[in-house]
Amino acid sequence: MSKGPSLAGRSLGGVGEPSAAPRRSRLDRRLLGLVTALVALILLNIAITPNFLDVRTLAVNVSQVSTIVIVALGMTLVIASGGIDLSVGAVMALAGALAPLILGSGVSLAQPALGLALSIVVPLLVAAACGLFNGSLVSTLGVQPIIATLILFISGRGVALVLTNGNLQTFQNPGFTWIGTGRLLQLPVQGWMALVLTLAVALVVRRTIFGRYLLAVGGNERAAALAGAPVRTVKVATYVIASTLAGLAGLIEVALISASDAARIGNLMELDAIAAAVVGGAALSGGRAPILGTLLGAAFIQLVGYTLIANGVPDEATLIVTAGIIVAAVYLQDSQRRP
Amino acid sequence: MTASLDIDLRRVLRPLGGGTHMTVWVALALLILLGTLRYDNFASAYNVSSFLGYNAMFVLISVGMCLVIMTGGIDLSVGTVAALSSVVAALLSPFGLVVALPAAVLTGLAVGALNAGLIVGLRLPPFMATLASMLAAKGTALVVSDNRAVPVDWTSDFTALGMNKIGPLVPWTIVVAGLVAFAAWHVLERTPLGRTVLAVGGNAEAAHLMGLKTRRALILVYLFSGACAGLAGVFLASGYGAGQPLEGAGWELAAIASVVVGGTLLTGGMGSVPATVAGALLFGLVFNLLNFENGKGVISLSAYWQSVIRGAFLLVVILLQVRFARLQRALT
């Protein structure tokens, strides 16, 4: 294979350019593979899993997977820029710890509507600030993403635990819990949120100048900088988006159980999100942001886990299967790139 | 006169890791000084021996991680491998240390071999390959242990390693960890294999073209990291009387932080084993000092503060390193 088309594909792929035809078809083939695997799994489940076609089965799976999808969307953007964000789980815990504190504060008791608004806006702003911190370390100071986000991974959850003194924070607020327990058309609200966010992020990547810059920066940072792309801004933006989405996921998990446990919320979420992104076709080397792939990747991992558990395989064994899926996904992706 | 003094000083400092790694030694010395002056029992035999005994596991996995990072790689599996090995060791503890220890180290080696196979054989990125083996090791640990802590057999000699000391001060675990660290340092600084490890991290392509056995070096490094994690698992089970399938979460990142605090760059090609050991001890010391500060009763910081402080500490070290790197670039 000549080098020309693959290079062109690398910089323009997934943007929706007609000139990027070879690249797009390859991506689509990958998505097709995932869709086929998903359909096969669903057919298998219809055959062997009792009550699989019940709408409640769907609701359970959707409510379990949607926070992973929401976090994985941001992770995909960060990975596309050539970075990684280990702090998402800690940011979830931080946002999740703040919400009950605000709901229980004097402001909320005096003005419930304002309290509700603050309990959502303030944690998201704090999460965004975490992203700004990560992004600044990475882009302005040139710290490696793993190390830069390791700082908040270590201390973010610590701050959440200090704020709540390690206690389980319970609360009752129907308005707030709606984002975790509400139903639209019989399906969980957070599932719809995940779907809408997926479409929004996919549009941003495919149709906006930011999306083009993002893929350019991830594909070849020096070239992008020489071509005039605002490399720093783009990188900071990806970390801010990733943290904000993580904050939202944290709020959803808190709303789901009307309680916040800073030690548990978002635990190991960074791994789930990375796995979903990579199974969906993201490459750690950057330059690719297959957003729909991320959605499908998360759904695939979720469904494999559900299939095993619903058929009596112990929970722990699913970890081993997930490991196998990750290895297979990375291997296939790598062999596609090889000439 | 001054010139000869300079050379002598450098010779003294070299085993510690040389100039770029001095930050960590200075910080360690300052914290020890602070602890000794401020708290009565800080320098007591009990505190020193329990501190060293507990942190031996982290020294081990940090040394393994240090070598991996020098090649430009990363090993995320060390924490769950230690957990898995602790379960294996606890299950085999009735047969004594002679059986349990080698079996646990072999378990670590097996995961190391898996990592090496995925990274060197299938050419997967180290981050993803070891992420997968991290999940697999955790799953295996939970399956083997039936999802709960496995008590060790107290009648055998298994717990001797984790509990016994040489004299009042030196636990056996830190002696073993120290020997492993010394061996790693020796291989790295004094043998062709060590040069190859650094060359791979500096520029894998160039090292390969020079005819160095880069694949062998990579395989050995991941095997070594796995074995270190396996041994850390033995310490865990032996010191705490149980195999802990759920322990080890976040250990890999603590080890990475120790390596980075020790001045080793994540890009590979350079680094220091002694400074990494100092980095691991430094992180442990932060926690130890916090306990003493609470004991004084002046302030009362909950245990949750330790991770906040560790994170802030990591931030400070990284900012210092960024500064040094910029200064160095400005000078050259």
Largest pleated sheet of chain A: 2 strands, antiparallel
Mean pLDDT of chain A: 83
The end-to-end distance of chain B, rounded to whole angstroms, is: 27 Å
Instruction: Tell me the strand percentage band of chain A.
Output: under 5%
Q: Order of SSEs of chain A, N→C?
A: HHHHHHHEHEEHHHHEHHH
**Shape call of chain A:** globular
Written account of the structure:
The complex is a heterodimer of chains A (339) and B (332). Chain A is mainly alpha-helical and 339 residues long. Chain A is 76% helix and 2% strand. Chain A contains 15 helices and four strands. In chain A, helix 9 (189-207) packs across helix 10 (209-219). Chain B has 332 residues and is an all-alpha fold. Chain B is built from 14 helices and four strands. Chain B has a two-stranded antiparallel ribbon. Chain B has a two-stranded antiparallel ribbon with strand order 2-3. In chain B, helix 5 runs antiparallel to helix 11 (214-240). Classes of the chains: A mainly alpha (339), B mainly alpha (332).
